[in-house]
Design goal:
Length: 287
């Protein structure tokens, strides 16, 4: 009897220790999560203290500074995309060779595997084509969640946030009364998606674009309820993306125009040379 009681006591003590350890682990995990989400607010606070800028400008400025810091990643993505484009003939040949494979799942798997090997043999990283979205989207969500916590009613900065906006929206903790900021945000989302998929003929990409655009429009009532301070981060970020897309489109157009001009010049030079050779041959035949 005593032995069974002692064993039960030891089991209870062990279970209690495990429960306390699990509780401490959950507390530590929660504290780590809170600390991670607080980093965007700490960056904004540091920027505002260093510059003395109003809060809305400090939030927008740190967002733009983050995007500027990501430009080397964008340049890397563009370079890898150009190199990937040079492999299109080989990738098209792989797709044609795998066309007869059945079932379709095996065909897709084999096409992807051989395409991947082709890219890696040419020292091209296919995942780099998605480098910016893979980094930018999680960073945007992280920043928005951090700023959202920063402008919440229970934040230590609540009083300062209530007077930290521009003249037409002083309170960054309250939703924008006319609802124009959410409209601008949705318009920027749609514009970025349109520019990002301009010229593509992929049904998958177009379906994803249409789905995301529809989701942005459907979520508008949720956006209207967000504090205005969230849009001080969201709108500059989306505007920066729009500027990137426009610059990339202008660069592509200039490259196409230069290539067209070079082709026309070469054709003109060839025609002129042929005409000169014909005249010379005709002159040589004259007695």
């Amino acid at each position: 009897m005593f032995a069974r009681t002692s064993a039960a006591a030891r089991l209870l003590r062990c279970g209690g220790a495990r429960a306390r350890a699990a509780g401490r682990s959950r507390s530590l995990s929660g504290a780590t999560e809170v600390a991670a989400l607080g980093i965007p607010a700490q960056v904004v606070v540091a920027a505002q203290a260093a510059t003395g800028a109003p809060w809305w400008l400090a939030i927008g400025g740190t967002t733009v500074a983050l995007r500027v810091g990501m430009l080397p990643l964008l340049w890397y993505q563009l370079a890898e995309t150009r190199r990937f484009g040079a492999l299109r003939p080989q990738l098209a040949a792989i797709r044609d060779e795998c066309r007869a494979i059945e079932p379709p799942s095996a065909r897709a798997a084999q096409t992807l595997l051989r395409g991947w090997r082709c890219c890696r043999a040419a020292s091209v990283q296919p995942l780099a084509i998605m480098a910016v979205p893979l980094v930018q989207i999680p960073l945007l969500i992280w920043s928005l969640v951090g700023i959202r916590r920063m402008v919440d009613a229970g934040s230590p900065l609540t009083e300062q946030m209530r007077a930290g906006g521009p003249g037409w929206q002083r309170d960054l903790t309250a939703p924008h009364a006319p609802g124009l900021l959410p409209v601008v945000s949705v318009a920027l989302i749609v514009g970025n998606l349109q520019l990002a998929t301009a010229g593509t003929r992929s049904g998958l990409f177009l379906a994803v674009r249409n789905g995301l655009q529809a989701a942005a429009v459907v979520a508008y009532p949720f956006f209207v309820a967000l504090p205005a301070g969230v849009f001080a981060c969201w709108i500059p970020n989306s505007a920066f993306s729009l500027a990137q897309h426009l610059a990339a489109a202008a660069s592509k157009a200039a490259s196409r125009a230069a290539a067209t001009t070079a082709t026309a010049t070469a054709s003109t030079a060839t025609a002129t040379a042929a005409s000169s050779a014909a005249r010379g041959s005709a002159a040589a035949k004259v007695p």
